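Table 4 source record.
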Amino acid sequence: MTKDSPTSAPGVDLGWLADRIDYRRYQECVHCGLCTASCPTYLVTGDENDSPRGRIYLMRGVTDGRISASDEVRKHLDLCLDCRACETACPSGVKYGQMIEPYKIAMQMSPSATGQGKLGWLLKTILHQIFPYRDRTRLALAPVRALKAIGVYGLIEKSGLFKILPKNLQAMANMLPETLPAAQPLPERLPAIGPQRAKVGLFIGCVADVMYPGTNSATARVLQRNGCEVVIPPNQVCCGAIHYHSGAEEPAVELARQNLQAFPFDELDAIIVNAAGCGAMFKDYTHLLHKVDPQAAARFQAKVRDISEFLVDLGPVAPKASLPVEVTYHDACHLCHAQQIRSQPRKLLEMIPGLSLKPLPEAEICCGAAGTYNLTQPEMSRELGERKYAHIEKTGAAVVATGNVGCMMQIAKIVRDHEKPIEVVHPIDLLDRAYSAEK
């Protein structure tokens, strides 16, 4: 903050923000506008206030005391997906995520917070008390799993009965995969297949492990097939992203501390993550834990690798069996923008014999999932999802691959709505199928 800046403003605690945002972050933006073409919300609305440079101007204006954190200002900040596409486009290296994330937390903390972006008690309970915990989520979804298993769920959905539910619950129900597989528990340790090349820890996540447990199992098998001993700590917890991105910093910090204790990171060559959002959160632990245990956070963070990033660096074992299928690849925002991982997933797909990779227009534009964004901003989320689907359909691909659970759920939902037989998978699922076909 500047010397003469106020310490409080209507709706936000500027002192709290000053402790988390270096004022020089605002000054790094030269307002050149190169970010606007990559910003999903600006592409839809055309409103300068819905662009990264516009939002930086708003945040700085509130910080300087020139404007108040009014409902109108909150609306524009809440509409941000935090996809970080602007960071990729920015020639000045502006760390936009390190500004918008604390600002959103500050707005959620404010007792005067209002509007669509404000979490209601029901959504807050689900996001903070259920989703970050695998067992609680499975228990909450047990009735849904049973109804899906006996074929009744679809009938209830088509009958329109879900319309009596609160809108947030309707959105959650709509996002659920067609099937909810039973848990696939993994042992604490899996041996390498063939000569051991590395020892890695595997992060299995929370929502991802409930919605797509098969992807975690596939990830473990692929790592074994590539000569890795796999350690799966049973006391690992949610990465903290669900709390942090919905305005709850302290629980996110506590979850991060638990993960530092759970993983023997000093003994591992890498900590493997297969969900882009979780990987980006892990790679930001030094920022999150800068006042708690920055040294341990830095050592942990240095070991974090997305599964595709790790395999390409290791030198992946090429499958021998053919997998004749046309695939298109969507770049998850927190993989391509937050972690700058683009070529690696494509390299893994391209080495599968018989697989044809079709280029996807606007592959790096957000699909509208953005963590919990599809629950808090359903209209914009839906518009971006439809935009993504239109491009997918043009490719003619039978399969969409993407490296994040939220993207998988969002795209699969839009595909179902259009009643198209397009499968949505993680790239590692396809690599695992190719390895399995060798048998």
